[in-house]
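Support request, please re-run this one:
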Amino acid sequence: MKITGVFKKKKNPKEKTTSEESEKIIVCKNCGTSFEGNFCPHCGQSTNDFNQPFRILIYDFMGTIFAFDTRFFKTLKTILIAPGKFSSDFVSGKRASYMEPFKFYVFISFVFFLLLNIKTGQFISDNSDHLDQAVAITSMAVDSVKAQFANDSTKQAIKNQFQWDNNKKTLGKLDKTEKDKIFATNNIKRIQASLIENYKNPKTSPFVKRILSHAIRLMDYPDMFVSKVLRYFSWSLFFLMPFFGFCLWVFFHKTQKYYYGHLIYSLASLSTTFIVLSVILALKLIFPGRMTAPENFLFWLIPVYIWLGLKRFYGRKALGTTFRMFILSNIYFVSTLIMVLLVFFLSLYF
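Re-run finished. Output below.
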C-alpha cells in the first residue's frame, strides 16, 4: 500500500505565501509608489492598463458609459419627480447613485445652449429669407444701394435706400406679417446707416469706433453675434452660481449652516430651469410653424419646481418659503439682467 504523502505537511489555507502577497503590491507607473488597491495614494492614477487587446478596452468603455447613464438618469428622475431631494441626499452623503452636481449642470447647460443656438439661428434664417423676399417685391437691389453709398452723401443714400418704404401700392399687396417685417427691416437699415455716419465722424473716439464697427457688422451677420453672446453668457453663469449660493446662504443659513449645501442647491435649481427650457425649445424645434405654442405653459413649472425644492431642502414653512423665494427671484432677475447687459457690451467690444 502506498503511503506517499501521509506525513506531508498540510497547507494552511489562511496562510499567505510571499509570492501571493507580492502579487497584490502594485508599483505606480507614474510616480513609482508601491501600494495596494485600484488607485495610487500619492498621485491618484488608476491601475487600469490600456496596453491590452482592443476588445477589453471596448468592454471597459461600455461599462463606463453604462455607469454614466445610470447615474445621469437617476439624477434626472430625482430632480424632476422630487424637487430638493437630490440636493438633500447629496449634502447628507448619499452620493454614490447620483451624478456629481457640477458635471450634471455642465451637461444640461450644454444641451440647453445648443438647442437655444439652433433655435435662434433658425429664427434669424427665417427672417432673413423673408427679408430677401421683401427686397425682391419692392425691386430694391442691394448692389445699387451700395453704389449710392459710394457716390452720394450719407443722407441722400439713406433717402434713396428707403424710397420704397413710401410705395403704398406695393405695400398694399402684402399681408400684415410681411409689412411688419419690411418696416422692421427699414428701421434696422436706418439704424445701420446712422451708425456708419457716426463711425465716419472724426470726433468719434477709438473706443466708440470699435463698438460701432462691431455693431454695424452684427447687423450684417446677426447669427455670429448671437452665437458669441450665448457663449459668453454660458460662461458668465459660472460667476453667477456662487453668487446665487451666497444669496441662499443669507436667507437660509439657520437651516443649512455651511455654504457648500447652498451651492449644491444653486446648481440643482439652475439645472432644473435648463431642463424645462430645453424641453420647451425641443418641442418648438420638432413642431415648427404653429399658430399656438401650448408648450409655453411649461414655463410655470420653473417657479413650482424651485418653490418645492426650497421647501423640501430647507424645511421651512410654506409662507416663509414663498416670501424668501419672492425676494430671491427679484435679486436673481436683477443680477441676471446686469450680467446680460455686460455680456452684450463685451460681445460688441471683443
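Residues 76-121+223-349 form one domain. The chain has two domains: 76-121+223-349, 138-220.
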